[in-house]
Design goal:
Phosphorylase Kinase, domain 1; Transferase(Phosphotransferase), domain 1; 36% helix; globular; 9 strands
């Protein structure tokens, strides 16, 4: 079931639909009580069972402590006029939308760092996301990136798997076999960062050189390429153990990651 523009749903007035996914529809809506625009995520009715609601409540309790500038919190979640509704702050657009336009190289580094900051904060608390992708990275004013759908993503994956629908997307190979871990989030983060740098998305069997490598080599340091190669290792033992470890390495190489001058010293331009 879809909702019409200007239709009321409790205190919310639908402005327009933003997206439709396998698990839910997302709407821009006006909160008539607070006087602000918000995002409403409304799971498809045929997927909302008592078991799904119980799973979501458990995940919401686990992820509630994730208070971080780069993590998007849930404002509220519950039943409104017979529909289960998840309410969050409304961003400007998703990273997926933004990648459809030219993105400055320095901004790519900023977004990569913010993604790893958010993920590291969660991994320190033994919480994994399970569904990292550009559509779950929401951009806010002043260059703020926030990672959305902690908890929701886990329930959605489980529900869609049970319903026989859903797509692999940015899923790590072992996660597709039902064995997710923090290293699976590292893999997905590596895919997102590579797509930002190259404009292309590597695919199975993830063999080096990835699609777009020549373009990346002209702009980015060998150290940054090696970081991404390690994140995308098919053998989980060769990956960073968590986003904390990946972030630490990223911060070490960040200052020299971007090669601005084509005549830079050879050690900054050598192939990897």
């Amino acid at each position: 079931m879809g909702f019409r523009n200007r239709q009321r749903l409790g205190q919310y007035r639908i402005v327009r639909r933003l997206a439709v996914g396998g698990f839910a529809q997302v709407y821009r809506a006006r909160d008539t009580v607070e006087g602000i625009d918000v995002a409403l995520k409304i799971p498809h009715e045929h997927l909302v069972t008592r078991g799904v609601l119980n799973d979501f409540r458990k995940e919401a309790q686990l992820t509630a402590p994730l208070d971080h500038p780069n993590i998007l919190p849930i404002k509220t979640a519950g039943e409104i006029e017979g529909h289960f509704v998840i309410v969050t702050r409304l961003g400007d657009e998703t990273l997926g939308d933004r990648l459809g336009r030219r993105l400055a190289n320095k901004k790519k580094l900023v977004y990569a760092g913010q993604l790893l900051e958010a993920l590291s904060f969660a991994h320190k608390r033994r919480i994994i996301h399970c569904d990292l992708k550009p559509e779950n990275l929401i951009l806010f004013p002043e260059g703020r990136l926030r990672l959305a759908d902690f908890g929701i993503a886990k329930v959605a994956r489980k529900t869609l798997k049970g319903s026989g629908s859903g797509t692999v997307g940015y899923m790590a190979p072992e996660q597709a076999l039902g064995q997710p871990s923090a290293r699976s989030d590292v893999f997905a983060a590596g895919l997102i960062i590579w797509r930002m740098l190259s404009g292309r998305l590597p695919e199975w069997p993830f063999e080096w050189p990835y699609v777009g490598t020549e373009r990346v080599r002209r702009t980015w340091s060998p150290e940054l390429l090696n970081l991404i190669r390690r994140a995308l290792a098919v053998d989980t033992r060769k990956r960073f153990s968590s986003a904390e470890a990946m972030l630490a390495r990223f911060e070490d190489l960040r200052a020299d990651a971007l090669i601005d001058d084509p005549s830079a010293p050879t050690q900054h331009r050598k192939a990897v």
